[in-house]
Amino acid sequence: EVRLVESGGGLVQPGGSLRLSCEASGFTFKWSTMSWVRQAPGKEVEWLSSIDYNRPPIYADSVKGRFTISRDNAKNTLFLQMNSLKPEDTAVYYCHTVPYGVDYWGKGTQVTVSS
């Protein structure tokens, strides 16, 4: 059974930082493309970043230069380091993967950027 569990969200002031984690199981993590997406209230899901096992990470323009995706294949864990956070980054953040041709998301972790 594929399982993705996000953690690390919370309330942070504008300009602050958070590091999200996504613990994965049930598939061969090290060979899988992993992504972070988010959904703000009343808005569509927004893709943020993806990391493959053999190519450099890619980022949406909205987070490029502020967010960094990384992975620890030994621990089957995906990370998202988020710096210089803005109020518009407030959303539920999900990790995503497509092993075996099927989309999987975790339950998400809430990030709120507010003073």
Q: Which labels suit this protein?
A:
four-stranded antiparallel β-sheet, seven-stranded mixed β-sheet, 115 residues, mainly beta, globular
Explain briefly what this protein structure is.
By secondary structure, this protein is mostly beta strands. It has strands at residues 3-7, 10-12, 18-25, 34-39, 45-51, 58-59, 67-72, 77-82, 91-97, 104-105, 109-113.
Describe the fold and architecture.
- The chain has 115 residues and is mainly beta.
- The strands form two sheets. Strands 2, 4, 5, 6, 9, 10 and 11 form a seven-stranded mixed sheet that branches.
- The chain is globular.
- Helices cover 0% and strands 50% of the residues.
- It is built from no helices and eleven strands.
- A hairpin with a 4-residue loop joins β7 and β8.
- The model has no long low-confidence stretch (mean pLDDT 96).
Write the layout of secondary structure elements.
Layout (H helix, E strand, L loop, with lengths): L2 E5 L2 E3 L5 E8 L8 E6 L5 E7 L6 E2 L7 E6 L4 E6 L8 E7 L6 E2 L3 E5 L2
Parallel strand pairs: 2-11
Antiparallel strand pairs: 1-3, 3-8, 4-5, 4-9, 5-6, 7-8, 9-10, 9-11
Shape: globular
Question: Proportion of β residues?
Answer: over 45%
Note the gap between the termini. Answer: 40 Å
Given the helix and strand composition, which structural class is it? mainly beta
Largest sheet: 7 strands, mixed
Low-confidence stretches: none
Task: Specify Rg, calculated over alpha carbons.
Answer: 13 Å
Counting DSSP E segments of at least 2 residues, the number of strands comes to 11
Number of helices: 0
Mean pLDDT: 96
Q: Write the H/E string, N to C.
A: EEEEEEEEEEE
The portion of residues assigned to helices is under 10%
